[in-house]
Design a protein that fits this description.
mainly alpha; 3 helices; 0% strand
């Protein structure tokens, strides 16, 4: 959900909101939920490749802590 996405859809969104189809919060929640799988899958694939190629800590616990921190910060970094 890049910052340039909403100006492109603004005209459509304003027209649909004026006709009373849905609230802005509903639109935002659906849009965010639809983007969430890619926000989680791509960073996971990236971390699986780069963590082990970089020969970081060989312990699974540290890998999963790193993965969780990346997944936690990845969706907000796109907005």
């Amino acid at each position: 959900m890049a910052i340039f996405t909403f100006p492109d859809e603004r005209r459509m969104l304003m027209k649909e909101r004026a006709s009373g189809m849905y609230r802005l919060s509903s639109y935002f929640m659906v849009y965010t939920t639809a983007d969430l799988p890619m926000d989680l899958v791509l960073p996971t694939i990236f971390m699986i490749k780069t963590y082990w190629m970089g020969r970081l800590s060989p312990f699974a616990f540290r890998f999963f802590i790193t993965l969780v921190s990346i997944l936690f910060f990845s969706p907000p970094s796109r907005t």
